[in-house]
Amino acid sequence: MTDVQPLLDEEEDVDFDPKPYARLKLEWHVVNKAYQVGAILGSLASLPWSYYKHRSLNLKSMLGSAGKTMIAVELLLGAMGYYKVMSIKEDEGVEDRVYRLHYNEGQNRVDKLAGSGAVIGAVSSGLGLASSAGLLNALLGGAAYGTAVGIVAHVATYSVPEDQKTKNKMIKEVME
């Protein structure tokens, strides 16, 4: 964990202890990423699906399919992630990952933008389209599209400082 220390500012909190509920924190991260992937896939899949089904882009259909796809992907990937996190035998590896996630500026930023987008999308869609699309479809679809917009905003506006570019050990292990 010492290689993360140089990334911290002098006055930044270095007393973060990842040990309490480390597996729960990592599982929350996995479920959050599953939700974000589901939102992206749901948003992308809803456009051709709506056009195929209605021969035009039908907003009610787009919201419904985006929300349902988002939930299905989240449940599937969340279950797979839960199994993976719970199958890790060493607590030290889980704690290390939680520690790194806590201080990962890009990760925290995309989570905030995705969460804000989800709330804004759900509220605006729920208020404006609930009567035509149904409240649940409007909320879920709006959250999916809002999350996708938040993630795209992060990708479009964020650049990692040169001194913070490191290889992700987890991805490196998976790819080998």
Q: What are the defining features of this structure?
A:
DUF1757; mainly alpha; disordered N terminus; elongated; about 180 residues
Description:
This protein is mainly α and 176 residues long. It has one domain. It has six helices and no strands. The radius of gyration is 19 Å and the shape is elongated. 29% of the residues are buried. Keywords: Membrane, Transmembrane, Transmembrane helix.
User: How many strands in all?
Assistant: 0
**Low-pLDDT runs:** 1-6
Helicity range: over 70%
Continuous helix count: 6
State the order of secondary-structure elements, H for helix, E for strand.
Answer: HHHHHH
Estimate the strand proportion. Answer: under 5%
Q: Report the biggest beta sheet as strand number plus sense, adding barrel if it closes.
A: none
What distance lies between the first and last C-alpha atoms, to the nearest angstrom? 22 Å
Helix/strand structural class: mainly alpha
- Global morphology: elongated
- The residue-averaged pLDDT reads 81
Write down the Rg.
19 Å
Please indicate the count of domains. Answer: 1
